[in-house]
Amino acid sequence: VLAAVKQNGLALQYANDGLKKDSFIAATAILQNGLAYEYIQGSFKEENSIRTEKLALKASEKNGKTLKFL
Question: Tens digits of per-residue pLDDT, 17-68?
Fold first, then answer.
């Protein structure tokens, strides 16, 4: 999964729920494609909200559509 999200962050949508909660995989996916923010698990978003929001904001520099998930 890590190799897949390095190439296309949106591949996260096909990962199992456990991997969607993995902070390294989620961060990698978000930085590759900010729209992957939509697919990370809710508990990861809640527990690491400041971190994930910073990642999403950084990713939004590439694609402004990322902001709709914040």
Answer: 889 888 889 889 988 988 888 888 765 666 666 666 777 777 777 777 766 6
Q: In angstroms, rounded to a whole number, what is the distance separating the alpha carbons of residues 60 and 2?
A: 21
Nearest-5° Cα angle at 17, 16 to 20: 95
Structure tokens at 29: 């996916």
Confidence (pTM) = 0.73
66 CB-near residues (< 8 Å, 6+ apart): 34, 35, 37, 56, 57, 59, 60
Q: How many CB atoms lie within 10 A of CB 68?
A: 12
